[in-house]
Amino acid sequence: MSASLIPRISLTWLLVAQALVIIPHLLHVPSWLIPLWLLCAVWRVQIFRQRADFPPAWLKGLLLLGVTAGVLLSHGTLLGLDAGVTLLLCTFVLKLVEMRKARDAQVLITMGLFAVVTSYLFEDSLLSFAYSLLPISALIAALIGMQQSSFNQRPWATWRLAAGLLLQALPLMLLLFVFFPRIGPLWTMPTADKARTGLAESMSPADVAELSRSGELAFRVEFDQAIPPNAQRYWRALTLEDFDGRRWSQAEFTRQARAPLPDWQAQGEPLDYQVLMQPTGQPWLFALDTAAPPDSAGRQAVDFRVQRGRPIEQALLYRMRSWPEAVRQAQLPSLQYRLNLRLPRGFDPRTRAWAAELSQRFGSDQQGLVNEVLKHFNQQPFHYTLRPPLYGQHSVDEFLFDGRRGFCAHYAGAMVVVLRAAGIPARVVAGYQGGEVNEAGNYLLIHQFDAHAWVEYWQPGTGWQSVDPTYQVAPERIEQGIEQALAEEGSFLEGDLLAGAQLRKLAWLNQLRLAWDDLNYSWQRLVLGYQGEQQMQWLASWLGTVDWQQLGLTLVAVIAVLLVLLGVWLVKPWQARPVAQQRYLLAAERLLATQGLVRDSGEGVRRFSQRAQVSLPAQAAAIKAFYREYEQQVFAAESVDEAALKLRYLRLRQALPWWQRWRGKKNAD
Amino acid sequence: MRSVMSLWRARWQRWLDRRIPAQSEVRLNQRRIFIIPTRQGLGFLLLIALLLIGAINYQNNLAYFLTFWLLSLFLVAILHTYRSLSGLLVRRQVSVPVFAGEEACLPVELVGERRAYQALALGWPPQPLQMADVPANGSTQVELFAHASQRGWLVPGRLRVETRFPLGLFVAWSWLDLDQRVLVYPAPQAGDLPLADAGSQDDDEGVRVIPGGVDDYQGLRSYQPGDNKRRLHWKAFSRGQGLLVKDFAGLAGRDIWLDFAQVGGGVEQRLSRLTHAVLSLYAQSQPFGLRLPGLELAPECSAAHRDACLRALALYGVKA
Lengths: 669, 320
Fold this sequence. Notes:
Shape of chain B: elongated
Number of domains of chain B: 2
Shape of chain A: elongated
Oligomer: heterodimer
Order of helices and strands of chain B: HEEHHEEEEEEEEEEEEEHEEHEEH
Number of helices of chain A: 25
Distance between the termini of chain A: 56 Å
Strand content of chain A: 5-15%
Number of strands of chain B: 19
CATH architecture of the largest domain in chain B: Sandwich
CATH class of the largest domain in chain B: Mainly Beta
Largest sheet of chain B: 5 strands, antiparallel
Strand content of chain B: 25-35%
Helix content of chain B: 25-40%
Number of strands of chain A: 21
Strand order of the largest sheet of chain B: 2-11-10-6-7
CATH superfamily of the largest domain in chain B: Immunoglobulins
Largest interface: A-B, 59 and 54 residues
Largest sheet of chain A: 6 strands, antiparallel
Helix content of chain A: 40-55%
Structural class of chain B: alpha+beta
Radius of gyration of chain A: 38 Å
């Protein structure tokens, strides 16, 4: 029952590494893991100090059962990424107490490396990556410690060695990282069920208000051209075509992947840009109208949104091209036509009556009708606010004619109801509007509080037209942003005092914030976004054409060359010459060998010297002088004096008959 | 199958003999160091493969990062493991003879020039290897033990020097022939010996020597270097009378001859008995001679004589 099989250094580093591995996971594992881990760590230290014993088999079984039950209770399942990671961490912690032999410690280190990788699935920011270097180096130090003797008491030396090894491995790693082909997933893996703020496929005005209080980043955009003005930056995510009197939702028909592609005609100048979006857990991408993905990043859907095959669970970088002046669906298929006129029965009688009146007044002049509705918003005392009153059963009626207080979702929803009631196909578009310009990196930052809803109506011949009723009420919302629109009310980010965007109030802090965001943007774009298309583009721009087979061979060759260089640097063969004293000793003995004097294996230097002095009486003084100098330098641990030894060696050589000197001559150096 | 194995082993030995010839001191270099991944190293590769699958499936670049980092570390570990053996000087040290049945100590000196060496393991498998560290510009003495099962020369064979430092993913090793051997004396075996007189072989009046007999106690004389320390009269010393030795006259006047031909039993038994006699006679400071077939050592009483006798007994009938 001794712990001697795991050296002290290794145990020290294992305990440190375990703490470092677990800390970033604490955000998403149940809190009972902390006491469990502390218990196991203390227990293990006591075992090492021989104050406690290893747990008996029944206790181990009980602990494992308890932990499994705990995971089941906390997560409701044993499957899925979150439960899986919690289980991994629990076994990682329990294994510590059970660790007896070197094998167990190796398993523990392996589990630790696994746990570090899983932490990347939850959090992949620059900071968390930088942090992960700590547990990685500690785990490698523990691996080294396994080999070290138990007398070694210098943990920092071990860590420095680990860090040195990792640094030396860095160039190879970068090569592999850049050139390893990024292929699609082999099979689908469970993903983190993380609560995310963002647009959903169904929303009530309250949901949008909630989003407007979040300072979280939604996506960043970098334009190839100049950044278009604020009022033209309408980022479409999806369209909401189903209305149940309360909520707007995505229509089933539109959501279907099988829906036919819409027809449209590109006109005018396109805009090219690159978007780096934060994970949303939803399949749609963000783009300006009318977007056509230039590559396989996404697919245009029937309502002109851009969609991917699977939800976006990691930061995604994609290129996009938009044609702002395109004509969209000059002909509307009857199914879509009917879909965009549908209204729930029994709601909002006053609105319907007003719409019927408008319809009668304008007849076939539908454009005039739309303008009249916008004028209504503009001229009536509407007020843009994030603190609207609660509207009841006939919410649109109450908003339009009684309360007249609301924000984008209210205005867009009400306008679509009016237009549909008047016989004009219309829908709500959900997305983001505006964005903050980061001068440092010349890109746009779009936050969750930029979430917006606007209106699209259809006219025969001209197709879909976008219109924003909010602009009529609060033009500053569209031209400057939500912060300016709410300046008077002071409700901007009121629920999120710690949001980065709060720092805008201090100029220098704001600069710092934007510079930091620029760094993170580069990290996400260059490192995290280096996938599929980006890799191909990058490699093609460097190498011209990308031939994977040739690339693979080159890569192997380059890695081999790097390894050889590193090996030469490590072993330093040019230093392999024996130290000076050994060199002169060997030379002198070769010299004496020409006289037939050879030191026997096992014969001491002094004894040989005495024997040589006896057999070569003429050179006895020189031999004695050389050997005495040698012994003093080597055995008496005196300072190395190469010159003095060389002098003795030369005297010895001179003392020997000349015809034998040349044989020993070449041996000295 | 066996013959194929032995043929292969013989070939391997011959190849090793050519590549790493016997020397009293060997510097480990690329000609002499072999290296392969350990079981742990293969496990590490498996871990890398699993991480790679995870990275591909999650399309997570940080997971790729760590995967490739570990793979690069694996490759770099080859060089470092090689380096933790390369340049090491292994030197044979003088070993002391032992009696059969004892553990023979075959010390070697490890010299680290320029840099330190850690976690070196030396020994003769399948016996467990002994661990050693060597400081930079210094040396370490390692005492290796081998079981001396029979008299003669104990040649433990090629010495395995290996290391898994730093990561344990690879093992670098070498088989060194330091020409190590140790003399193994026969195991002493007590028993009455007929002691022959010089010249009077046929004298049937044999004298029996009782080993360790105290009957012939002669008195005390002052200590001289070379005297048996077991004979020191400690009581006298503690009384401040100086170092005195209890003197045993033995069978004065007659030289004692230990004669192989006169001892009963098989060859090994005879040698064992003679060994015992040599030791006990020397312990009694009794001059004695040794007669083996083809060898005669004249009576004398000194440590050198004792060692010469023991050596002759150990190597009796052993091919050089």
